[in-house]
Amino acid sequence: MRSQVEIETVSPRLLAAVRREVAAGRVGDVWRPALDQVWAFLRTQPGLRTDGHNIFVYHHGDPVKADFGVEVTREFAASGEVRPVTTPSGEAAVVKHVGPYDGLANAHSAIHAWAKERGRTFGRHVMGDLRRLERRSRETGDAGSSFQSP
Fold first, then answer.
1. Within the chain, where are the H helices?
2. Nearest alpha-carbon partner for 55 in 78, 42, 71
3. What are the angstrom distances between the C-alpha of 83 and each of 34, 93, 144?
4. Euclidean distance between CA atoms 20 and 102, whole angstroms
5. Greater model confidence, 143 or 96
6. How many domains does the chain have?
7. In this structure, which of 14, 17, 90, 97 has its CB flanked by the most CB atoms within 10 Å?
8. Residue 80 phi, psi (nearest 5)
9. Which band of pLDDT confidence, cut at 50, 70 and 90, is reported for residue 1?
10. Model's pTM, two decimal places?
């Protein structure tokens, strides 16, 4: 079953993030160490994160530039590799996936098929846990994620 694609207007989100350049298909090798750096930084910054969640921003190219981050509450000064990043805003094609992380490939395929059918292209993708699904994720072990392609 193909995931449902919806058009939404999204607001920018401020992240604390670490950027990596990665070959397509190799994101799984680099995202966790990058996020470990972000979380270590956030533990030293009281109040910078309240209920923020992990968000990845992919800038298409070869290699892919990816910002692996956590939503934060305010601006901050860069520290080491951790720097402030703002997610894209405006019109976005959105797929909401609830289930195991290995099912995200289906959401990814659905949004690309939707774009091809409409002659649309995307420069960036944003992927992150949806707050309203996080409780379900903790209770069931499923991934609650959104895939946005402005």
1. 27-43, 104-117, 131-140
2. 71
3. 12, 27, 25
4. 22
5. 96
6. 1
7. 17
8. 60, -130
9. low
10. 0.78
Residue span of the structural domain in which 109 resides? 5-149
Residue holding tokens 């910054």? 45
pLDDT at 40: 96
Residue 6: name the closest of 114, 100, 118 by CA: 114
Q: What is the CATH number of the domain that holds 45?
A: 3.20.80.10
Helix (H, G, I), strand (E, B) or coil at 51: coil
pLDDT of 88 > 90? The answer is no
34-42, long-range: CB < 8 A, 24+ apart: 34/66, 34/68, 34/81, 35/68, 35/69, 35/70, 37/80, 37/81, 37/82, 38/68, 38/69, 38/70, 38/82, 39/70, 41/16, 41/79, 41/80, 41/82, 42/16, 42/70, 42/72
Give the strand order in the sheet containing 64-71. Answer: 5-10, 90-99, 143-149, 124-129, 54-59, 64-71, 14-22, 83-86
Report d(CA 66, CA 42) in Å as an integer: 19
